[in-house]
Design goal:
- By secondary structure, the protein is of the alpha/beta class.
- It has two domains: 89 residues, Leucine Dehydrogenase, chain A, domain 1 (Rossmann fold, 3-Layer(aba) Sandwich); 128 residues, NAD(P)-binding Rossmann-like Domain (Rossmann fold, 3-Layer(aba) Sandwich), CATH 3.40.50.
- 40% of the residues lie in helices and 17% in strands.
- The protein contains ten helices and eleven strands.
- A six-stranded parallel β-sheet has the order 1-11-8-7-5-6.
- A hairpin with a 2-residue loop joins strand 9 and strand 10.
- The protein is globular.
- It binds NADPH dihydro-nicotinamide-adenine-dinucleotide phosphate.
- NADPH dihydro-nicotinamide-adenine-dinucleotide phosphate (NDP) binds next to helix 10.
Length: 296
């Protein structure tokens, strides 16, 4: 069997297009421009690349982008003062603090200082609780992107067996909650799971979010299953740096019914969903209807 490739790049472009259309309508009909503030502390090169890309795509969608670059030695008090200012600013509908933060800053404290209604990363404890209890929340971008692609591919997810490998707060757990919300039968696997390949082979939907390059091989995949590869790993191969997922693409694609590639699968969906979340936050803040198909 040769799997269908789920084209996350094209899907993300479509989402960004939908966001841009809604933004143009918000401006024309209500004189409102959604605004996203991104806060970067320190000079982590990978974070700088992400922040630049977020700023560029925010502007391309017609939204206002506010970048706040702070020195690596910024105190917690100064960072919290900036967040309070952004919380109070009506032009800012979404706030994202780029993680990881330098070691002297308490990430939980900082994230929980963001107004939950502006928490477009969906990491605030209130949003985690709302998602866990099936209430309207801001949903973490990467799992939201995975859910959108799964809904598009399968139509309804109800009754399907889903196995999520990874139980992190930013990917594994919210992914599992979203799949449960769509009435999948969900298993969360992790480093202590016994006989992982056998557990994974029960899945109609297999989500790989382990942070280990190409760990999930075809042996883990039930014939015809959908494999969503969240992993982003840079490896050296044949003297070159290569981007690979947490799934071994060739062996999984030989067994799966559908698979997301790396690059060009889940990755591009993350920023697209950040834009979608910012638009959603803006609509909610202004008491306007939320755009269809861009939230969980
Ligand atoms: P974490 O390191 O926080 O979590 C990894 C999870 O995988 C843990 O729950 C861990 O289990 C589990 N795990 C590790 N080794 C094994 C193993 N041998 N068998 C079974 N489970 C294992 O990673 P994240 O959730 O932050 O990220 C996961 C992947 O997704 C990474 O590759 C990351 O780069 C990528 N990512 C991609 C994004 C995107 O935009 N596409 C965004 C965010 C992440 P335990 O809890 O027991 O230790």
């Amino acid at each position: 069997m040769t799997a269908k490739i789920i084209d996350g790049k094209a899907f993300a472009a479509n989402i960004r297009g939908q966001v841009a259309t809604h933004v143009a309508r918000l401006k024309a009909d209500h004189g409102i421009t959604p605004g996203l503030a991104v806060v970067l502390v320190g000079e982590d090169p990978a974070s700088e690349v992400y922040v630049r890309s977020k700023g560029k795509q925010t502007a391309e969608a017609g939204m206002n982008s506010y970048e706040h670059k702070l020195d690596a030695n910024t105190s917690e008090a100064d960072l919290l003062t900036l967040i309070a200012k952004l919380n109070a600013d009506p032009a800012v509908h979404g706030i994202l603090v780029q993680l990881p933060l330098p070691g002297h800053l308490n990430s939980d404290l900082v994230i929980n200082a963001i107004d939950p209604a502006k928490d477009v990363d969906g990491f605030h404890i209130s949003n985690v609780g709302l998602l866990g209890t099936g209430q309207k929340s801001m949903v973490p971008c990467t799992p939201l992107g995975c859910l959108m692609m799964l809904r598009d591919h399968h139509g309804k997810l109800s009754g399907l067996n889903a196995v999520v490998v990874g139980r992190s707060n930013i990917v594994g757990k919210p992914m599992a909650q979203l799949l449960l919300g769509d009435s999948c039968t969900v298993t969360i696997a992790h480093s202590r799971t016994k006989d992982l390949p056998e557990v994974c082979r029960r899945a109609d939907i297999l989500v790989a979010a382990v942070g280990r390059p190409e760990m999930i091989t075809g042996e883990y995949v039930r014939p015809g299953a959908t494999v969503i590869d969240v992993g982003i790993n840079r490896i050296e191969r044949d003297g070159k740096t290569k981007l690979v997922g947490d799934a071994h693409f060739e062996s999984c694609a030989a067994v799966a019914g559908a698979i997301t590639p790396v690059p060009g699968g889940v990755g591009p969906m993350t920023i697209a969903c950040l834009l979608a979340n910012t638009l959603t936050a803006c609509c909610r803040a202004n008491g306007l209807p939320e755009p269809d198909g861009l939230t969980a």
